[in-house]
């Protein structure tokens, strides 16, 4: 039996960064995001003898470990090994059964679409299917968050795990003691379609580690740098404004909120923008873009542009002349899912 899973990647629309401690613990965070039809995939199947095999198919990395020894949680496959170790500890009484774990993703790490956290959710979902664990969306997301932030000491927030687990458009609230409330938004079908026709997702060609930006953001809040805290307050307010704009179908307000959020985000930490990002933003605005946003922590990865649908092809042609690549997408209704294959 093979347990397979997939979890959707997400686009951060407003409030990104306010889900990172210590800001969300002290002030409360608010994030609005939406999942898209690009996924992280994982599979778990029986291993050979007393060995565990971990392989990242799109990175062509593979490791084999003896099940009777502790798994080394380091290297390029730390996400795969970290999920396995935590599942064994929490649900199997510390026993490490032989398994084969395989993964691949529609987006590279450092893309700004939450790909690393989404992969952890996909892995948790696959192991849950394989071992028949009774985990709901909140449990899957919280466990994925704990594995990344506590077990593996990876810097970051909470929104990616919950977006991948739940799917769709969600307004999320983050509080101290890891309390999270996910509010699904019922977006009118016409608004959904108009928004898809108005957005362009562009990969800059540069993957980046978000850790340095997130760590600086964390230091800025902890050291009471008021400019950074004020920027995060504005981002949180934009999440409320964008939620209202979406629910009411006011996409002109959505565009202005998207741009305002990007301007506020630049004040959170250095490295969020750079000359290449600025040049791409200028090019997009000259070719019909009304608003720009860098998805994720910033510094590279994917950029999101909004334009009138009649200007979309013009914008795509202009961006296609650059070093990056436009990625077509549609919004996804469904969160992480799993199934069994023979």
Describe the structure.
This protein is of the alpha+beta class and 342 residues long. It has two domains: 2-186 and 332-341, 2-Layer Sandwich (Ribosomal Protein S5, domain 2), CATH 3.30.230; 189-326, Alpha-Beta Plaits, CATH 3.30.70.890. It is built from eleven helices and twelve strands. The protein has helices at residues 23-27, 78-91, 115-130, 137-151, 159-166, 189-198, 211-222, 226-248, 251-265, 275-286, 312-320; strands at 2-14, 29-46, 51-56, 61-66, 99-105, 169-175, 179-184, 199-203, 291-294, 302-306, 325-326, 337-341. The strands form two sheets. Strands 1, 2, 3, 4, 5, 6, 7 and 12 form an eight-stranded mixed beta sheet that branches. A hairpin with a 3-residue loop joins strand 6 and strand 7. It is globular. The N and C termini lie close together (5 Å). The model has no long low-confidence stretch (mean pLDDT 91).
Query: What fraction of residues sit in β-strands?
Result: 15-25%
Largest sheet: 8 strands, mixed
Identify the overall geometry.
globular
Helical amount: 40-55%
Count of β-strands: 12
Q: Which architecture of the largest domain would the CATH scheme give at its second level?
A: 2-Layer Sandwich
pLDDT under 50 segments (min length 5)?
Answer: none
End-to-end CA span: 5 Å
**Average predicted local confidence, pLDDT:** 91
- In sequence order, what are the helices and strands, one letter per element? EHEEEHEHHHEEHEHHHHEEHEE
Helical segment tally?
Answer: 11
- In the CATH scheme, the class of the largest domain would be Alpha Beta
Q: Could you name the CATH topology of the largest domain?
A: Ribosomal Protein S5, domain 2
- The count of domains is 2
Radius of gyration: 20 Å
Structural class: alpha+beta
């Amino acid at each position: 039996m093979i347990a397979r899973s997939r979890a959707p990647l997400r686009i951060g629309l407003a409030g990104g960064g306010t889900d990172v401690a210590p800001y969300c613990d002290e002030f409360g965070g608010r994030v609005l995001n939406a999942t898209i039809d690009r996924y992280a995939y994982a599979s778990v199947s029986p291993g050979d003898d007393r060995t565990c095999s971990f392989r990242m198919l799109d990175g062509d990395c593979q490791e084999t470990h003896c099940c009777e020894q502790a798994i080394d949680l380091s290297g390029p496959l730390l996400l795969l090994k970290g999920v396995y170790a935590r599942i064994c500890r929490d649900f199997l009484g510390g026993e490490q059964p032989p398994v084969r774990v395989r993964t691949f993703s529609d987006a590279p790490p450092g893309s700004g679409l939450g790909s690393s956290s989404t992969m952890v959710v996909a892995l948790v979902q696959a192991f849950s299917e394989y071992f028949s664990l009774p985990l709901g969306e909140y449990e899957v997301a919280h466990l994925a968050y704990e594995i990344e932030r506590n077990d593996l000491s990876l810097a970051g927030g909470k929104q990616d795990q919950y977006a991948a687990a739940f799917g769709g458009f969600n307004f999320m609230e983050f509080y101290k003691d890891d309390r999270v409330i996910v509010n699904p938004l019922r977006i009118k079908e016409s608004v959904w379609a108009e928004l898809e026709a108005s957005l362009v997702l562009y990969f800059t060609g540069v993957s980046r580690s978000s850790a340095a930006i997130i760590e600086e953001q964390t230091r800025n809040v902890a050291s009471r740098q008021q400019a950074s805290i004020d920027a995060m307050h504005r981002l949180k307010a934009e999440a409320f404004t964008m939620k209202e704009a979406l629910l009411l179908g006011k996409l002109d307000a959505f565009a202005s909120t998207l741009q305002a959020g990007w301007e506020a985000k630049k004040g959170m930490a250095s490295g969020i923008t750079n000359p290449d990002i600025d040049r791409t933003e200028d090019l997009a605005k000259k070719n019909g873009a009304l608003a720009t946003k860098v998805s994720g922590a910033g510094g590279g990865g994917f950029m999101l542009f909004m334009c009138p649908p009649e200007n979309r092809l013009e914008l795509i042609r202009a961006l296609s002349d650059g070093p990056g690549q436009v990625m077509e997408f549609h919004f996804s209704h469904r969160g992480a899912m799993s199934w069994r294959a023979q």
